[in-house]
Amino acid sequence: MDIDARGPRFGAAVTTVVLAVVLVTGSAWLLAWQTLAFAFGAAGGVGRSPYGWLFRKAVRPRIGPPTEFEAPEPPRFAQAVGLVFAGVGLAGYALGLEWLGLAATGAALAAAFLNAAFGYCLGCEMYLLVRRATAGAE
Prior knowledge:
Layout: E1 3-4, H1 6-25, H2 28-44, H3 50-63, E2 69-70, H4 73-94, H5 98-118, H6 122-137
Antiparallel strand pairs: 1-2
């Protein structure tokens, strides 16, 4: 079942703010929260993430029904990619490798910002590339 295309973009906007605050404050706790949010999105799809829930309950009723839909698999894959970067960043902060925490968090922030500001989902594009590559290998 396709999903409201505005939901993942809303989630990306919230993620952008959260990751920007992580970079400014160096808060490993806030990055742990974002890692958990990515984990929920990767495991259950973007609708099961905390930001997906917030979109569904608080935002969507105020902006009306969707006019554009998308397949759920690419955004779910993008959540998994975000989970990897946030996990690496969290490990960096936890191990005292601040440069690793900053670099991985910055990469996740860049991807989230591209989706939030321009509707360009890097993780979704990666998903499509992987699908094309594996379809040709079969």
